[in-house]
Write a structure and sequence with these properties.
TIM Barrel, alpha/beta, 14% strand, 8-stranded parallel β-sheet, 11 helices, globular
């Protein structure tokens, strides 16, 4: 396992991060989730990502139980705040940041998290109030560093400007959706982050599993996959288009040329970007953790990536409305 610096922090994180969205505490049985976590540590994965809203707190509760026997300095733990936890508890106000952070720490059975992320931008709360609350969280020792997920580039820049003028805690990470089938962050988010010491922690690097090649365009999804799961399949529908699934099948021989499986190839494509610190995987089996971890440190001819990009680009464009 290879490691990268997380932005302007002193955190060294594994190139593969174990995520918990839709899986632990929700879609995956506890013993299997525990096996995935144990396998991650065996392979050198030291970075774990969760959020208060995952399973309504169940993911944090699971991790709190499973991590309490491990040395606190043996892993980097990230969680998030923003989405509703109750009818009245949501957003990034000063009160919510403080309340939800304390609730997360209680579920995690910890006195601090390494990275606290704004899960989305809160258009209903002044940015200055959010930045002040995050800074207080850092100053309190409950949070080491702060980040955000899916913020527009102009709001990222606004936060950077406030940090410079007011001395607020500086963001060190961005968590965007990014993959061969979703390249929007390349346009504005990655450039502004790369220029300001903010690394990407990529979610859905395998396009909700579509880039694993396990979905046959002419057959129903296998029973043990995310697309077939009521608990985990709600976000994949837009990617299950026959044109795209056929294009993904065309990537398999390219991955073989690189000496990788298709999931490893798709993850290596993510890690080719210097501004990426880590790619988050959503494993439901230990074997998936092992396979995905094999992407770390892979060296791939740029021409193979370019061929893959062209195939996927053509498929995506063919499915877009005229």
């Amino acid at each position: 396992m290879q490691y990268r610096q997380l932005g302007d922090s002193d955190l060294q994180v594994s190139e593969i991060c174990l995520g918990s969205w839709l899986t632990y505490g929700l879609g995956v049985e506890t013993d299997v989730a525990r096996a995935c976590l144990d396998t991650s540590f065996e392979l050198g994965i030291n970075f774990i990502d969760t959020a208060n809203v995952y399973g309504g707190g169940a993911a944090e509760t699971f991790l709190g139980e499973e991590l309490k026997g491990r040395p606190r300095n043996s892993y980097v733990l990230a969680t998030k705040v923003y989405f509703p936890m109750t009818d009245t508890d949501r957003g990034l106000s000063r009160r919510q940041v403080e309340k939800q952070l304390d609730a997360s720490l209680q579920r995690l059975q910890m006195d601090h998290v390494d990275l606290y992320q704004c899960h989305r931008y809160d258009w209903d709360t002044p940015l200055e109030e959010t930045m002040e609350a995050l800074t207080r969280a850092v100053d309190s020792g409950k949070v080491r560093y702060v980040g955000f997920s899916e913020w527009p580039a102009e709001r990222i820049q606004a936060a950077l400007d406030l940090t410079q003028s007011r001395g607020f805690a500086k963001f060190v990470s961005s968590q965007p959706q990014y993959s061969l089938v979703h390249r929007e962050p390349e346009e504005e988010v990655i450039p502004v982050c790369a220029a300001n010491g903010i690394s990407q922690i990529v979610w859905s690097p395998l396009g909700q599993g579509v880039l694993t090649g396990k979905y046959d365009p002419d057959s129903p999804p296998p029973a043990d996959t995310r697309a077939a799961s009521d608990a985990m399949g709600g976000f994949i529908g837009g990617l299950m288009k026959p044109e795209l699934l056929r294009a993904v099948q065309r990537l398999k021989p390219i991955a073989q040329e690189a000496g990788l499986t298709l999931p490893q190839f798709a993850l290596a494509w993510i890690l080719r970007e210097p501004n990426v610190a880590s790619a988050i995987i959503g494993a439901s089996r230990p074997s998936q953790v092992r396979e995905n971890a094999g992407a770390s440190g892979a060296r791939v001819d740029a021409q193979l990536f370019e061929r893959a990009e062209e195939i996927i680009k053509e498929a995506v464009e063919s499915t877009e409305p005229a």
